[in-house]
Design a protein that fits this description.
The complex is a heterodimer of chains A (183) and B (280). Chain A has 183 residues and is of the alpha/beta class. Chain A has a single domain, classed as Alpha-Beta Barrel (fumarase), CATH 3.20.130.10. Chain A is 26% helix and 27% strand. Chain A contains six helices and seven strands, in the order βαβαβαβαβαββα. Chain A has a five-stranded mixed β-barrel with strand order 2-3-4-5-7. The longest helix of chain A is centred in the first third of the chain and has 12 residues. Chain B has two domains: 100 residues, no CATH class; 126 residues, no CATH class. In chain B, the strands form three sheets. A four-stranded mixed sheet of chain B has the order 4-2-5-10. A four-stranded mixed sheet of chain B has the order 6-9-7-8, sandwiched between helices. Chain B has a two-stranded parallel ribbon with strand order 1-3. In chain B, helix 6 runs parallel beside helix 8. The longest helix of chain B has 20 residues. The chains are: A alpha/beta (183), B alpha/beta (280). At the A-B interface, helix 5, strand 7 and helix 6 of A face helix 3 of B. Iron/sulfur cluster (SF4) sits at the interface of chains B and A.
Chain lengths: 183, 280
């Protein structure tokens, strides 16, 4: 069954999500990867405002390909999440409720998800042209000089993702692999 | 001597960069469809469907199948009877890559220096491997290689005593430890023999084989089959979320080696295994 959810994520929405759920996300999400995360965390530490309101926000780890003429964005699949792990807990402390990427997170991030009641979604790595179809509008809102790594505000409709880690500590990577292991 | 114009090479390389990124090979599509038939996990099936649909969109709309359009690895076989008129072969390839990545709206993912990390802006330099062969033709293969799967690759200098079991365990273990990171289902390039660097290179070259092709040496053909079965019992599944289809193929490349050594290497590639070839 596919759950439709909208942004910003409320406490209630997050509480209703469980590892293994397929979701379609509609609303506004923000992009950021390696360098942007460093900038965001530097801004928090310097006491400056973030380029977007982190409360209930979802960050998508992506560095899209350039937009061809007539399209809001190029191909836009997830990048590997663990590179953002040293920055993610602080963002959750500031209100971040969702992260979209691919691949396993490290323990401090898993702990922070429970503590701050947040959720980690996987998008299908390499399904970048398909995912781009759900992105209706894209606008650079910070760090334009970072090129593909700039922070963008995306308007998405039915963005396809799967809940991997929920706020209850369930982990679909662990669960799924254990279920199908035949060694 | 047969002359091939500089611009002919440059334009051919530009087109290969675009085609490789827009068009996933028929062999991979067939393997993904087969995967969909044998996958037991519902999430896994759903992911395989998304990937197949994605590859259709990329082909029809001529957009990159993955946003990580990779490092351009270029394999060249140049006939000894060929000269490039109007410039150097390396420059023609490099300029072709810059043109392909710029005109084709492909992502520029290369930084000038690994520590100072400033983007070069046009995805150059490419990685070029040149072989001189008999004849008067020029064969060029462009293999864009994404970073996610590359990061899960490894070279290991085993001792000869480790034998076939040591090699096989290393390959399976490398996939096990990679989990979701190389975007499974993966294509595993596994090399054994040669020197340290030759082995790594062969692991990458192995991925140019067609999925479904059988190794010409029955000894390695059996080993590829065995490894694929073992890997698909790991349970990693599509995108690492659990399932049967972890790898679409295992390709082994063996090369003579020194009496004291047994280099082994695994180069991981995602389902977006991209490569296109032209013969000029
Ligand atoms: S590993 Fe492959 S499919 Fe995954 S993001 Fe990288 S290039 Fe794309």
């Amino acid at each position: 069954m596919v759950k439709k959810i909208t942004t910003p994520l409320t406490e209630e929405t997050v509480a209703g999500l469980h590892a293994g759920d397929s979701v379609l996300i509609t609303g506004t999400i923000y992009t950021g990867r390696d360098l942007a995360h460093k900038e965001l965390v530097d801004a928090i530490e310097a006491g400056k405002d973030l380029p977007f309101d982190p409360h209930g926000a979802i960050i998508y780890y992506v560095g899209p390909s350039p937009a061809p003429p007539g399209k809001p964005i190029g191909s836009a699949g997830p990048t590997t999440s663990y590179r953002m792990d040293s920055f993610a807990p602080l963002l959750m402390e500031k209100g971040l409720k969702g992260m979209i990427g691919k691949g396993n997170r490290t323990q401090p991030v898993l702990d922070a998800m429970k503590k701050y009641r947040a959720v980690y979604f996987a998008a299908v790595g390499g399904a970048a042209a398909l995912i781009a179809k759900s992105i209706k509008d894209a606008r650079v809102i910070a760090y334009e000089d970072l090129g593909p790594e700039a922070v963008r505000e995306l308007k998405v409709e039915d963005f396809p993702a799967i809940v991997v880690n929920d706020m209850y500590g369930e982990d679909l990577y662990e669960k799924g692999m254990a279920e199908y292991r035949r060694e | 001597m047969r002359e091939i114009a500089f611009d002919t090479v440059k334009d051919a390389v530009a087109k290969l960069c675009m085609d490789a990124n827009y068009d996933i090979g028929d062999d991979i599509i067939a393997a993904l469809k087969h995967g969909l038939e044998i996958e037991e996990s519902e999430t896994g099936k759903d992911i395989l469907k998304q990937i197949l649909k994605n590859n259709e969109i990329a082909h029809d709309e001529r957009v990159p199948s993955c946003q990580d359009t990779g490092f351009a690895v270029v394999w060249v076989e140049i006939g000894s009877g060929v000269t490039i008129a109007g410039g150097e072969l390396n420059d023609a390839i490099s300029q072709g890559v810059a043109k392909g990545y710029t005109d084709g709206y492909l992502r520029k993912s290369i930084v000038e220096d690994p520590l100072r990390r400033k983007n070069t802006g046009d995805n150059t330099p490419p990685i070029i491997y040149i072989d001189i062969v008999p004849g008067d033709q020029l064969k060029i293969t462009v293999q864009p290689k994404g970073g996610g799967a590359e990061n899960m690759s490894e070279v290991k200098m085993l001792t000869p005593a480790a034998g076939a079991e040591g090699f096989k365990d290393f390959v399976v273990d490398r996939v096990r430890r990679s989990k979701a990171n190389p975007c499974p289902p993966v294509i595993v390039g596994a090399a054994i023999g040669g020197t340290f660097e030759k082995c790594a290179m062969n692991a990458k070259k192995a991925q140019l084989r067609k999925v479904g092709s059988v190794h010409p040496d029955p000894f390695y053909a059996d080993m590829e089959k065995e490894l694929l079965e073992r890997i698909n019992k790991l349970g990693i599944g599509p995108q690492g979320l659990g399932g049967r289809v972890t790898a679409l193929a295992v390709f082994i490349e063996a090369f003579p080696c020194h009496i004291a050594t047994m280099p082994t290497a695994v180069n991981m590639c995602c389902h977006a295994s991209r490569h296109k070839t032209v013969v000029l």
